[in-house]
Fold this protein.
Amino acid sequence: MSNPFTRHPQALGESFGQHFGHAMSYSGRLFLASCAAFTHALLPFLFEKTASTMIKAMYAEMTSRGATAPVEPASRIQLAE
């Protein structure tokens, strides 16, 4: 039986700690992107491309690490595996 805490990190060639660090980094950057998008919603002249630029950069980083699968239509994405 595989350990659910290490199965995914091992598939990426990472330890649990390394994976935790990457995931927390993405979490922090997504929070900042969210704050920029929220501010932009209220004040459209601020942060016009900030959130999308941050998300595109994170996606490129995730893809280069092998941490993503091919993009599927939203209607086929499962949130829990």
About this structure: The radius of gyration is 16 Å. The chain has a mean pLDDT of 85. Helices lie at 7-11, 16-42, 50-65. Residues 12 and 67 are 7 Å apart (CA to CA).
